[in-house]
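User: Can you write out an input/output pair for a complex, sequences first and structure second?

Assistant: Here is one pair. Inputs:
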Amino acid sequence: MRTVEWHEGKVRMIDQRQLPWEFVLIEFDNYTDVARAISEMVVRGAPAIGAAAAFGMALAAQRFDATNRLELLRYLEEAAELMKSARPTAVNLMWAVDKLVQVASHESLARVKDIRKEMLRAAQRIADEDVLINKRMGEYGATLVRDGDTILHHCNTGSLATVEWGTALGVIRSAHAQGKKIHVLLDETRPRLQGARLSAWELTQENIPFEIIVDSAAGHMMHTGQVDIVLVGSDRTAANGDVANKIGTYMLAVLAKENGIPFYPVVPTSTVDLNIKSGDDIPIEERSPEEVRAPFGNAITPDEYPARNPAFDVTPHRLVTGIVTENGIVYPPFNINLKRAVEGTLIEEVTTVNGEPGDGTQQLSMLDEFYLDDGGEIE
Ligand code: MRU
């Protein structure tokens, strides 16, 4: 099932705080609660946050009793501001909210009911596209994984971090589906333990062999020849290829370089922020020190011990071997080739599939008109 979806007029999510112990679904009936669910990490992972925010915006339009178009658009501006403030690093959140506001403000939509309908359709489209994009990244990325490989993975980048399938974990899923015998080392990912709780839960469902390691074991595993490739996700990738991802990713990239191991972030183009030139300008979320002192309410230090909790770090592009996108695998120079992948142009020059040039005709349409059509009704 999908991590986040529209269900009988509400936004429904898997409560990721409860996994792997309990599988709980929560329904949200107003957009402020959706924003809170994002900041409290009921839903997390950049693409899943984006889809949740898109449905949250659609929900805002459905619930507000507007008498005219302008009144609704003003209300949506407020909703957009609150939604975007839920978490600062994952650019998919801003991307999805902006997309929904853009659809709502389209001049062809004069009536409140048309705006509501098109916003819901656009949110659904973002969710559906996410699944297609992940499967395409999975196919491209799986060309990097050889039979018998051990893959080191950080955080959770699977179905739970997206709408379905996953980014880096999606590549692992695709390689497994192709019959490759792979083994996965899962960083536990302190302090929220997305690796130990969520990635391990997903790989168990898929019967993909894995072992959980503490984050600080990664260097030892690499140095002793127990890792063939490192696959991670991203919350925001700058125009020059600097990659912001879950705290600890930078350390992995340095260790991978030191040990001659390929390091590939798997990044949908909705996570690439071409407005940000380098990783220095990516806002890094600092979460409560309480998550460090007492993960999931289990105190490991006295309350008064000072702690810091940066949730993300930036890996400089010089440490990145290549970036897997839905438009192919991008190699340096990233400042040129990443833009091409985002625009979906000159795809054959920046990608290879199984060693052959990629086929530009396989691109997905990410044009704005795509979000404004008169396709089927949404329940
Ligand atoms: O704090 P989280 O759990 O939202 O962080 C998630 C990650 O860092 C993922 O690697 C990233 O969102 C990309 S995975 C689709």
